Amino acid sequence: MIIDTKIDITALRAKFPILHTEVNGKPLVYLDNGASSQKPQSVIDAISRYYEAENSNIHRGVHTLSANATMAYEEVRKKVQRFINARYDHEVIFTSGTTGGINLVASSFGEKFIGKDDEILITAMEHHSNIVPWQMLCERKGAKLQVIPISDEGEIDLKDVERLLTAKTKLVSVVHISNSLGTVNPVSEIIRMAHANGTPVLIDGAQAAHHTPVDVQALDCDFYAFSAHKMYGPTGVGILYGKEEYLNAMPPYQGGGDMIKTVSFAKTEYNELPFKFEAGTPHIAGGIGLGAAIDFINSIGFEAISAHEKEVMQYAISTLGTISGLRQIGTAKKRAGVVSFLLDGIHPYDAGVILDKMGIAVRTGHHCTQPIMDRFGIPGTVRASFAVYTTKQEVDKLAEGLERVVRMFK
Amino acid sequence: MENTIADREAEVVEEFGMFTDWMDKYEYIISLGKELPLIEESKKTDDLLIKGCQSRVWLHAKMENGKVVFTADSDAIITKGVISLLIRVLSGQSPESIINTELTFVERIGLKEHLSPTRSNGLVSMIKQMKLYALAFKAQHNGQ
Ligand SMILES: Cc1ncc(COP(=O)(O)O)c(C=O)c1O
Q: Structure pTM?
């Protein structure tokens, strides 16, 4: 039995059926967790069980199945509330994912609070889904997008935040952990500085919610968005946390069933939180799956998760450091979850194709963060990203694979 | 001897029949990629560029004695290797036969994955672009 840390990795990996499959005739080495993590059997079972025994629409029927489904779904909302330590469960909005959450804020908060010549502040390391919705909003409103630059290491300087926060700044939206560089941003400091300026803050937690405990009250962020599928849960469902005072002040996002109290052709009265922002039948099974994913994370605990992931991360950074011609892109002092790199003279695509032949799944390309690639003047990177079930042996296999890639393209 | 697209495809398929494992096959593709006559850096203008999400492809076409002659380049070697095979099969053929062909060799040599749109390496668009060039040359010819 291999025990890397306090976590019994063999037992843990046994819970993930897909980790035992073969790809191209080789045992799968899955290092693309930043794109989407794999799912434990408990999550898969929760979704199947829902469809086998509980399926029914929620918030509507008086019949038992519907009542049970509603209860199960609303239980998950409470579970998420505890998971991120939100003050109220109605501050927890089910969305389709991080992208869905950010678009909700851009549309609804943007409608109410952003006007001509106002500014929205982001960083140069944002995912496209934390850039484009703001650009669209700026276009609609005649507002302006301001960008906090990043250093060669892939870090922001708080002095730049200070400089760019002005009376015009009406929202700050920054990524908690960068999906391309692994940089862990000083979000607490940013939030403090923004609040001192009277500006609310949205945190893109897509790459953070499964690596580190998130306490939205301690952070004091105004919005926090994340996706279930990156934290061992299903695709198509995510969470937007928002402070009650903002959510109440914001107009509804989409219109439809569930988000209304009364409808007549003369006037519609909107439902209260959180339903005001949840028009239509949601991804109920997905929500149930997210609940199981949170149970899975809680069953290990963030202390053990962080310890293990730190160890794997450190090991990856030093092991990849020994490969000649390998240059890491993103060398921030605080990094988590991903290592991005380039091999001298080898296109990331070429490296990715050969690694795939060896059963090693990495991501290559710009990782939906084209501005970062432009910033570094590169076409893209090879990115290895880790999860709680990643082992040092897998990192070794990646290193062997890369040595082989280097030999093949010499 | 006829040297049709089908003949050339058969030739490539036979050549790849020698390889028993993926390593040999890819080493061969890489060597083809390295050999491909390049488009000069200064000539890689945006009008020749086919944007893939992952790798970029430049394609140039001209008419010579009633045949279409292609040159191409890519920033990724494996993409370039596959390009070199496509050029070997399609370059020097008549516009008519390029327009009408349904290429099968890529699939037959087990490289179909490289023509998957999800790879976004520019190859699918490149084949489309090759046919568009052939169409344009044919129209030009008919118009004369
Ligand atoms: C930092 C970051 N933000 C946002 C997203 C978008 O997440 P989703 O596609 O689940 O909406 C991702 C996913 O790759 C991400 O890594």
A: 0.93
